[in-house]
Prior knowledge:
By secondary structure, the protein is an alpha/beta fold.
Amino acid sequence: MDKLNIGIIGCGGIMNHHVSGILTFPDINICAVADKVKERSDAMAKRTGAKNSYASHAELFEAEKSLDAVFIAVEPTAHTNIEETAIEKGVPFFVEKPMTLDMEQAKKISDLVEQKGLITAVGFQDRYLDVIDLAKEELKDMQVGIVYSSWIGGVPQVWWWMKKSTCGGQLIEQNIHHVDMLRNLFGEAESVYAVCGRGILNAGHFPSELPPYDTDDYSTAVIKFKSGVIANVMSACYVKDGSAIRNGMTIIGRDKSLEYEIRNSLTIYKKNTTKKITNTNKQLEDIDRTFLNAVKTGDKTIVRSPYPDAYKTLILADAANRSMETGNAIKL
């Protein structure tokens, strides 16, 4: 095939970031877009040159008969039969995280993807950072015991973040990137115990047109991995100005330690040396390019975050949420 015909489902902020890279790919034709907000779909159609703009994914799938792939970026609770339709029609799909808040739906989609052998990808872009490739190399000869990570900042001004029932809380909506990174580096988890807190933020901190705020202001999750590594994942969204906070992950080894500054750099600490390596690649473009290359070649093994693997990350993050709710450690 010369050019891939792709559809866009969800035309908000993160999709516009994806499109910035996709528009530079000469072998990609964005032929159709869909969003429930007409102004957004029309603006995306104008930006991409897409011939058709739809009010829903159902209309897009019904009308477009020659789609090679779709990109999906909708709110966590808006995954209503989108992926299932793509699977039914045999259309490879890329979906942004979190893929859904409905664990039964996630399992169903994961199972169907595996049964059909469909090419998929989930937006865990950090897996594509060159400094993470370097970290994996450094870890090969490291004895690691403790890891701690943080994503601390403010609240994005979008409606679904206001309520835990629509965003899943910060751990699932945002810091799931670190949960996935831990799995990427250390394998599968054995158990998780998590606690959360509220009370710093209230409805008065947000514009009146947004829903009442009731999600967690902060949380911490302790994850024990089957490898023996214990990781502490800290999340907080109450900070008014988080620009001075250096978020990322610190990995403590016996003979050396690694410090990953999120999407920026990796610092390697040894007895007499400190070496800082700045990330050089554009990971968002790379994750999109890799997925599209998989579609072109049929080689799904090049995708670092296919849906069934990403489902395991969602299971772990959901278990942390259940631990917050019950006060109990959750075995996996």
